[in-house]
Design a protein that fits this description.
The protein is an alpha/beta fold. The chain contains 6 helices and 4 strands.
């Protein structure tokens, strides 16, 4: 087996990567692969920023009930800002060589860091609009904000 690379990697996930059930096990097994390859992997999840997450879910439920339109809170500026606050606290006084964020569109879009970020996803938001149930019948501002966050993140 090759020697581990002498890098400190921050692993950013919304759900707990130690739980094999989240995202079909992808986060868990990716964590195991990273730990086998890098000297130090720091788990920076799960990220469940309250009360913002609760309020966004409530806002989505109300719009669904009233207008049959969805608020894609998962890819919203409100959640991106909340993730940024949470990650600032978790990353304080730590120096990372690399950040890895599976399905990290919103977690890393507004993150202010000079550390390289590896973003891993199984689809683009633009390609999934009107395909996935949670991305159908979006409120116009929600669609626009999600696409803008994806653009910011990929840049």
């Amino acid at each position: 087996m090759a020697a581990k690379l002498p890098l400190k990697v921050g692993y950013i996930t919304v759900d707990d990567p130690r739980d094999r059930r989240t995202w079909s096990g992808t986060n868990h097994y990716l964590l195991k692969a990273l730990e086998a390859r890098f000297e130090q992997v720091v788990v920076l999840g799960p990220l469940k920023p309250q009360p913002v997450l609760f309020l966004c879910r409530l806002f989505n439920a109300l719009w669904l009930l009233l207008l049959r339109k969805r608020f894609n809170y998962r890819d919203s500026f409100a959640m991106a800002k909340a993730y940024r606050r949470s990650l600032r606290k978790r990353m304080r006084e730590q120096r990372f060589d690399l950040l890895i964020a599976p399905a990290g569109l919103t977690t890393t879009a507004l993150l202010d860091t000079d550390v390289p970020i590896v973003h891993i996803n199984d689809r683009s938001l633009a390609g999934a609009l009107e395909y996935h149930v949670i991305l159908k019948d979006l409120l116009p501002f929600s669609r626009r904000d999600g696409l803008e966050l994806e653009r910011i993140n990929l840049r």
